[in-house]
Predict the 3D structure of the following.
Amino acid sequence: MNIATTVADEFDTEAEDGSGSAHPLFADAPRSVSFNKLRKRLLRQVRQALDDFQMLKGQKRWLVGLSGGKDSYGLLSILLDLKWRGLLPVELIACNLDQGQPNFPKHILPEYLTKIGVEHRIEYRDTYSIVKEKVPEGATYCSLCSRLRRGNLYRIAREEGCDALVLGHHREDILETFFMNFFHGGRLASMPAKLLNDEGDLMVLRPLAYAAEDDLAKFAAAMQFPIIPCDLCGSQDGLQRNAMKDMLADIERRMPGRKDTMLRALAHVNPSHLLDPKLFDFAALMTAKPE
């Protein structure tokens, strides 16, 4: 099923004031034309990603990682809206991993998820103490913290009988990762929209791959999500990712639309015009000899 085209006119037939059918969590959402367009755009982008990367192939149950940030709230809301419309034939369970960061507000996510009627699981694992012990003074915690979080989410997905772990990474996350690998890792690689884990038993899906971070920020503000900050551990200053974010923002300011162009470039790779002999057989290139 081509999700992006089978019901292409569905949202265009809604009233411009946003009064069309939607999940109940949108009951108190703004009724403005601008918010309606924003919601439609995010829905279409997620539907396009689901279709382009065949994310629904063989899928029955998804574990949706919920950190409490704008991106994961936006992801869950859009997936719930698509499911409400009959466009997402999978079960959803939201999961937050409480990693023991100081002052983490434990009540916010379970209260919110209960209020909107979403099946969920809140898991406590004190990975923060492990990170504090392993990471040298002054270094950032994010890399090790992320690996520990991912391992626990894989475990929870298996325990909950899920086929996939679904994460809220967006366009900027993908571009920033590409340039981090480009500048610091010496390789051309980024976050894939669809990935099979090393064990081969779970998919990792990123349905927000085409969504802009700025759109998700506007969406979160309009929906008044109860945001939990990502700096509870105090490790965010000076990250290489922040440098990439600033660089991309500067490029976009000077040349609007470049982010979308760069994202399209990641989908149009020409191995014969790169320098990797493992991807293209340069040795087999021969000139045509005259008779």
Observations:
- Residues 180 and 268 are 20 Å apart (CA to CA).
- The longest strand covers residues 91-98.
- Confidence is low (pLDDT under 50) at residues 4-9, 12-19.
